[in-house]
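Late entry, written up from scratch paper. The run itself happened at the end of the previous shift, but nothing got recorded in the book at the time, so transcribing now.
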Amino acid sequence: MEYKSSLVITSIAGPDNKVLQEFAQQAKENNIGFIIVGDVKSPADFKLQGCDFYSIEKQEASGFSLAKGLPKNHYARKNIGYLLAMQLGSDIIIETDDDNLPYDTFWNKRTETVTAGLYQDENWINVYKLFTEKNIWPRGFSLEHAQKKVSKKSALLSCKCPVQQGLADENPDVDAIYRLVKPLPVSFEKSTNAAIGKNSWCPFNSQNTTWFREAFPLMYLPSFCSFRMTDIWRSFVVQRICWENNWNILFHNATVWQARNAHNLMRDFSDEIQGYLHNNTIVQRLEQLNLKPGSENIPENLLTCYDLFIQMNLIDKAEIKLIEAWISDLSNIK
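Output as recorded:
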């Protein structure tokens, strides 16, 4: 069956998970395909009406060359869900996690061109500050710039945004340093959309993110890096390549609230150290890359960007084979 829009989650939870149940019911009511990507620890007998569950065995039987190369027990297995959604013929892929509960607005119609305040040439911009007066910053934000003041809200323009990040209330996506020293919960104020354009940086995650078809090749999550950095470093690569296509990254009001799964905060802190130390340098180095404009050059640009991480000894060189498998699988879907 084909779906115009698909929802992708990776999870090792059972079918009794309330978030998965909520998404399964609502996706069915809204005629949205729902794919759950399992892993080694997933229940062998997982069954939930309203979703298509892919065990490791089913992933490896999918025909995607990436499926057998991806490491097990890893969040990057979500890549298989993206490919499966593309195979369904979806023009829009929405991703979230199994601890984010949707508001009614989560199911609103999504459009690629939106009215938003456009922020360009800002270097680092803490988008959270456009939605709250609280001293809060997103996971992956350069700590060197955490105290930087945010420019006044920009005039509203029509902006092309094939990648769109929704915020999360209650337990927003912040780093371990914030969680260890600052109070939660925090919920965001309602505000106008913010579009991040050329020469501006703000990390975005994989917890409430919408992708439109022409940006699908950018969805790749790297495997050979910290779990806490996989979606953050992807976001930097995505932003850099979007500049070459005159695309913007949209940040919009919260459409989910997070009932966060249990985490060991000191382990999260340890896993985020590479980001604390290097994120500012990463974006500076990405800015210096000579990339090619045009959607047809996204695969080559992906390889160029991730090769930079390898040169910086932040990602293992084994990543290249996975990216090549991703590119091959994309070409076969087309």
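The longest strand covers residues 249-258.
(Scratch paper discarded after transcription.)
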